[in-house]
Amino acid sequence: MSHGMQTHEFDDPLAHWSDGDGTVPTITRGDGAYVYDEEDREYLDFISQLYCVNAGHSNDAIVDAMTEQAQRIPYVSSSKHNDARSELSSRLTEIAPDGLSDVYFAVSGSEANESAVKFARDHQDAHKVLTRWRSYHGGTYGAGSLTGDPGTRATLERHAATSGSGKFLPPLPKAFDAETPEELAEQAADHLEFVIRNEGPDSIAAILTEPVGGTSGAYPAPPGYFERVRELCDEYDILLISDEVIAGFGRCGDWFGIGTEDVTPDMITFAKGVTSAYAPLAGVLVNDAVADELRSDGIDVGQTFGGHPVACAAGLAAIDEYEDGLVDNCRALAPTLEEGLRGLEAHDAVADVHGRGFLWGIEFADPETGEPFVDPWAGDDGDNPVAEVREIASDRGVLVGGGRPEIQLILSPPLCIGEAEIERAVDVLDDAIGEVFG
Fold this sequence. Notes:
Blueprint: E1 27-31, E2 34-37, E3 42-45, H1 48-51, H2 60-72, H3 83-95, E4 100-106, H4 109-124, E5 128-132, H5 141-146, H6 150-156, E6 165-168, H7 181-199, E7 204-209, H8 225-235, E8 239-243, E9 267-270, E10 282-287, H9 288-297, H10 309-342, E11 350-356, E12 359-364, H11 385-395, E13 398-399, E14 401-402, E15 408-411, H12 419-437
Parallel strand pairs: 3-13, 5-6, 5-7, 7-8, 8-9
Antiparallel strand pairs: 1-2, 2-3, 4-10, 9-10, 11-12, 12-15, 14-15
Helix pairs in contact: 2-10, 3-10, 7-8, 10-12, 11-12
């Protein structure tokens, strides 16, 4: 058979996270909190596509900034400096927690997390990084080894093993027997200390964790938990890395999700919302000690498109938009969103609603057993009613996400939404849950 002969009838590219069954929509345009398919059908984008279009679709200020940069100079090597790149670096350190003084740019969240881990291992002269079970830190081999989601990790390790990571339990009620949030924080932190001591503190370079769970369930930590994690890192000389790929840039009501806790990490990884997803950009904010070492010793690896000037221009414009009312809008309407979502707990099948800002999860369970209806990670077969809720909502014009595992839905609307969009999304979910579960 000649190489030029066409062997299939598909014109669309291979879709990411595809299951080989069914079709995916073709999105052709967007406006604010809405997107439109090739038949011009409107959808309320209550997941910001992939938790990333924080400023909403078709923001003229961001598009204009990218256009101006592309006309001036579209690309500058990542081994050189560029004015847009340096300005964005400065802006990021201004909005970051005190003490995070330097930025290393990357392309994706996976690469940002891998870079942070490399920096931590070199700085600490230790190889191990601790992450939570039921976490997601990326889909490349390095970031996949850090991920607690067995679907991602098992897929990547099917033919090649990864190493250098250890796992600990997340501060979730089902993982412990606490009766109050305070007890949960204490038990979860005690468990983490147990893991640290049994892994060997000297072998651990860093703890990498999301301040609010992302696709793993949008769950916040109980009060006091992160303060104790910070204390453990200080006591055992371990770096604390906050994965802000989803939680950052206003998503949780502050510039960074860790800003909703009384804690300063040693590094922050970011991506997605830094440009409102108008261009791929990611990076690592590092503290003074790590920055001094990197500037002194140099960095022997890099990425061609790290800190792309057009993406940096998008990042500068996006930060302006966030400062000009979008983060404030998230703070103002977060209670409205929470109240509406908690109303869904009137359905017996809704086991829990949790989140912060504009990042929320709705978890489902059989009210008679307290167990998931179908747990994909446990190898359960059969139709998943939670996925059916998501499909019905999409059919009715509201896009929501499926969590890891898909015993839950994830909601992550653009920061530009108003009360009318919140009411519409909650009403559609209410009807869809009622239709599926009765």
